[in-house]
Structures are given as C-alpha cells and as structure tokens.
Amino acid sequence: MVEFDAINEYNKVSPEEKYNLFINNKAAAEKRSDAMMRWIIRSIEFGKYDEALNILETKNIFESEGSIDIQNAYLNCYTLKALSFMSKSQHNEALAQLQVAVDYPIGLYGRTRYTQLYYLNGLAYKNSGNSAKAKEFFEKAAAVNTSEERGDNREYEFYKGLALVELNKSNEANIIFQKLTGADEGSSTLPQQFGGRGSAESRRVTELYISGLGYKGLGNKAKAKELFDEALKINPSHLWTRIHLESL
C-alpha cells in the first residue's frame, strides 16, 4: 500500500484517488503501521477528518523517533474542523474544536503551531463579539517566537502577522509578510543535488506556498493565487495550500 501510494504521489493523482486507494484496500492497509499513517493523511487531505481521528484513536500507529506525523494529523483534524464551523458562523463549535487542539500535548517540535491556534481562537472570539477574549488570544499569537522556523513551519509566521494586524500593528505585520514572499532574497530556486525529483519538488512546493502566504498577508490575492495554483500543479494534495487558495 505504501508503495502504491508513493506511485500515486509521484504521478500527481488527485486527493480523492489517493484516498480511494486505501478505502478500496482497507485490509491490506491495516497490516502496516506506515500504511495506516498514510491512510490518515489521505483522509485528511480529502476532508474526512472524523475518519482520520477514528483511525488515530482506535488503531496502534507507530512512528519513527522524531516524527510528528501523528501530532500534525491530530492538529490538522481539529483545526480544519474548527475552520469549517467558523465558515458557518458556528463560533462556539469552532472554539470547542480549537480547545482540543490547544490542549493536545505538543512535544519539543512543532510548538510554533500555537501561533495558528491562538490566532484562530482570537478570530472566533472576535466574530462572536467577545473583543476582550479576542485581544487576549491575538496577543498570545503575536508573542510566539516564530523567527527561527524553517521549511513548512515558516507558515506560522503568517498567523503571527495576522495577529499583529488585529492588534493594529500593520507595519510589523507587513515586515513579516514581505519576508515570507522572498521578494528581497532574489531567486528562490533551490539546488536539486540533494535527493531526487520528490525532494526537489517538495522544496519547491514549500517555497511557493510560503511565498503565497506572504502575498496573501499583503493583500495581493492575485499573486497569492498564482503561487498557490503553481504549488498545487506540483502537488495536488498539499493540504494547506489548497485551504488557503479556497479562502481567497
């Protein structure tokens, strides 16, 4: 199953096709922990958050030392469920999902994710009319140190910028957004000598995604859409690129 899923990923098939591979071969997937983890990831990519959580909570999933795949899966599920409730103005329901995410015992790695969780809490409270609680969470988001993050984790600087905007610190926020675009760093094309096609493409998707977040923060939706579209051409299943593109 893992090998077939890797082939699907290489061939850039849709999130639905990747998900259906596991649905149509459940018995085979359940024989291997790594296959179950991929099933969880594909379920989340296809919007089956409760299914992913059910697997996480009922199956024994093992991951290598230092991996945070399970942590990311849990947090993605609850964060995305919260966003779904927020899109329907169901703020109390969204806050309940976010509370589960905040309470999750994030380990040594990935703690800058609190920036996103705090910001979204602030936004839910703001939209429900509780400005005091909103300000409290925006301040917590803005206080998280995200400056040392690399790779995909740089995305959490975006939420720090959004929190700063809510705190009427747009100048500070724009410095963050401008940095994310990479516009001051010249060409961001990465060398391909490390690893093959997959790793080079993965790095390129990260560049496009992070840069798109920067332009989104600056209000340049057209440029953000262009970059997100390009990223999804390389990896149609890149979860958060798709989420941000849909929000434009």
Which word captures the global form? globular
Structural class: mainly alpha
Distance between the termini: 35 Å
Major sheet: none
| Percent range of helical residues | 55-70%
**Unreliable residue runs:** 186-197
N-to-C SSE series? Answer: HHHHHHHHHHHHHH
Count the DSSP helices.
14
According to DSSP, the number of beta strands is 0
Rg, Cα atoms, Å: 18 Å
Portion in beta strands: under 5%
The overall pLDDT, averaged over residues, is: 90
Short description:
The protein is mainly alpha-helical and 248 residues long. It has helices at residues 2-10, 15-23, 26-29, 33-45, 49-58, 69-87, 91-103, 113-127, 131-143, 155-166, 170-181, 197-217, 221-234, 239-247. Among the domains are: 1-62; 169-248, no CATH class.
What does this structure look like?
The protein has 248 residues and is mostly helical. Among the domains are: 1-62; 169-248, no CATH class. It contains 14 helices and no strands. It has helices at 2-10, 15-23, 26-29, 33-45, 49-58, 69-87, 91-103, 113-127, 131-143, 155-166, 170-181, 197-217, 221-234, 239-247. Helix 2 (15-23) packs across helix 4 (33-45) and helix 11 (170-181) runs antiparallel to helix 12 (197-217). The protein is globular and about 55 Å long. The model is unreliable at 186-197 (pLDDT under 50).
Keywords:
single chain; 248 residues; mainly alpha; 14 helices
Secondary structure elements and their pairing?
Elements: H1 2-10, H2 15-23, H3 26-29, H4 33-45, H5 49-58, H6 69-87, H7 91-103, H8 113-127, H9 131-143, H10 155-166, H11 170-181, H12 197-217, H13 221-234, H14 239-247
Helix pairs in contact: 2-4, 4-5, 4-6, 5-6, 6-7, 7-8, 8-9, 8-10, 9-10, 10-11, 10-12, 11-12, 12-13, 13-14
